[in-house]
């Protein structure tokens, strides 16, 4: 067989697989056999086991497993993140950047602003609200160790706190998302394969991608997505309830958290019924407007601090990105494993969800446009966000201003609201923040539901409405059940389970880079 034919055979063009050919249609559902059944069964087993077991025991067991993975594979996680960044940056300058997702005549389905709003809301919105204040303060005060063993509560610690926070929320996580999203978009829109994780590996596996090798990959993606979403819903409910208690004096306990989850899930169900155009897109645009308003108000309240913090954050990030990216010979192992490796595992476990959603809304962009938008622009926005929230919080702690300055970091969900206390219009800022948390909460849930719908429907983009409702409801039900039975400990147990899925996905990510290049090579030479 001629060499060129062999490359084509393993690169996609000869498969006769059609999207949805293994699906079963029943009771208003259109589901892939066996991905849907096995995924739902494993989720049910996990939930039952967690509910019938003492939450503290479940948390201890899963935490022990999680920390063993982090301790034994820390270098694998870190080097994988570094490779993702270098790989994405190379795509910007290589000729492959000319390839257009969907073909040369494809046009974007969404405006640039709406596109960016959707990918950002799905990727990190709720996390920035949760950690934007708490993380820099934690690094400054040594709440759980300090980066590079810097002495806590010093000017050096303040500077490194901003750089280390940006390191965790900047290029590396977005590079991980970019690789998954770009791979999915290319194989789905340029090669006509199902929008499912398994399709990425057709150049490597050939038709075996439609067998059990592909089933396992997709099932892992479903579990990682659902566990990650339920964890975020639980944490988001805790932050929203803490804010409501702080501002309005209402009880922020389990009852309020369940009310938040039920309300958000109901709105998320409404959104997924309306689809991307009528639901997720609108909510994401609303998200960006509220987030912009919040950042502007907070910036005006601490203008002098923010203007000095932004350049400091940039310089601290650039200065420390290489030391923080190097896993060899670290003397700050407890901080390094407890924060950086934990984050990398979390981003990797979230990558199937965020990557697939970004892929769904990115048709019509060139590879170069895609990588610049998904990698560089969110990093620049995050620099502003962390400089505003983290910079003001650090200034309050260094100068003992307000309750955050006096007490330091006590409760992570409450940190942002404590910072607002010492600012002009503090109550208004807290109300806007609560609203933003809730809207981010909804967009995470509905975009995640659409992703799980697609995977469990064999890569179809138009899963039936009952199926969309099923997954959106399941996410909220799992988060609510875990909070009701075990509170924070049960949510942390679920988070540990989600992070444990990152280990196999780390290997999958590395193989994606190889498979994507093989796929690019099958494009006509003038195109690439």
Described by the principal axes of the CA atoms, the overall outline is globular
How many separate structural domains?
A: 1
The strands making up the biggest β-sheet line up spatially as: 1-2
The CATH topology corresponds to Amino acid/polyamine transporter I
Determine and state the CATH class.
Answer: Mainly Alpha
Q: Which spans of ≥5 residues are poorly predicted at pLDDT below 50? A: 1-11
Task: State the share of residues found in helices, binned by percent.
Answer: over 70%
Output the helix-strand order.
HEEHHHHHHHHHHHHHHHHHHH
Question: How many distinct helices?
Answer: 20
Give a brief outline of the structure.
The protein has 528 residues and is mainly alpha-helical.
């Amino acid at each position: 067989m001629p060499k060129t034919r062999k490359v084509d055979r393993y690169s996609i063009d000869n498969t006769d697989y059609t999207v949805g050919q293994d699906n079963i249609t029943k009771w208003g559902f259109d589901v892939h056999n066996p991905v849907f059944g096995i995924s739902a069964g494993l989720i049910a087993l996990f939930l039952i086991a967690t509910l019938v077991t003492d939450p503290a025991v479940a948390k201890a067991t899963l935490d022990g497993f999680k920390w063993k993975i982090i301790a034994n594979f820390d270098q694998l996680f870190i080097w994988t993140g570094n490779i993702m960044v270098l790989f994405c940056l190379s795509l910007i300058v290589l000729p492959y950047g000319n390839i257009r997702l969907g073909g040369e005549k494809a046009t974007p389905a969404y405006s640039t602003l709406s596109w960016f709003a959707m990918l950002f809301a799905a990727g990190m919105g709720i996390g920035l609200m949760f950690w934007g204040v708490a993380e820099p303060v934690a690094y400054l005060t040594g709440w759980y160790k300090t980066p590079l063993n810097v002495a806590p509560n010093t000017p050096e610690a303040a500077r490194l706190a901003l750089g280390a926070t940006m390191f965790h929320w900047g290029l590396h996580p977005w590079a991980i998302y970019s690789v998954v999203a770009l791979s999915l978009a290319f194989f789905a829109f340029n090669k006509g394969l199902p929008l499912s994780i398994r399709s990425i590996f057709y150049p490597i596996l050939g038709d075996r991608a439609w067998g059990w090798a592909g089933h396992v990959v997709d099932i892992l993606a479903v579990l990682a997505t659902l566990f990650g979403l339920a964890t975020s819903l639980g944490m988001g409910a805790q932050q929203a309830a803490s804010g409501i208690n702080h501002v309005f004096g209402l009880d922020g306990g389990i009852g309020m958290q369940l009310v938040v989850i039920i309300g958000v899930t109901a709105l998320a169900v409404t959104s997924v019924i309306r689809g991307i155009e009528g639901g997720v897109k609108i909510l994401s645009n609303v998200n960006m407007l509220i987030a912009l308003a919040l950042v502007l108000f907070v910036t005006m309240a601490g203008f002098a601090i923010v203007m000095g913090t932004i350049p400091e954050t940039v310089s601290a990030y650039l200065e420390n990105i290489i030391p923080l990216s190097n896993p060899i010979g670290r003397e700050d192992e407890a901080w390094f494993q407890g924060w950086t490796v934990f984050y990398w595992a979390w981003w990797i476990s979230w990558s199937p969800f965020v990557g697939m959603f970004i892929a769904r809304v990115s048709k019509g962009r060139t590879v170069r446009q895609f990588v610049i938008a998904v990698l560089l622009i969110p990093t620049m926005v995050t620099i502003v966000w962390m400089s505003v929230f983290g910079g003001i919080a650090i200034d309050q702690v260094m100068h003992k201003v307000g309750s955050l300055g006096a007490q330091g970091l006590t409760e992570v969900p409450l940190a942002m609201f404590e910072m607002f206390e010492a600012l002009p219009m503090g109550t208004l800022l807290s109300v806007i923040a609560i609203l933003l948390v809730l809207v981010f909460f909804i967009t995470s849930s509905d975009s995640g539901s659409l992703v799980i719908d697609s995977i469990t429907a064999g890569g179809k983009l138009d899963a039936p409405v009952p199926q969309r409702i099923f997954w959106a409801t399941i996410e909220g039900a799992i988060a609510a059940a875990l909070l009701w039975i075990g509170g924070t400990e049960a949510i942390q147990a679920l988070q540990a389970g989600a992070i444990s899925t990152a280990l196999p996905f780390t290997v999958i990510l590395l193989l994606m880079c190889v498979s994507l290049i093989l796929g690019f090579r099958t494009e006509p030479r003038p195109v690439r």
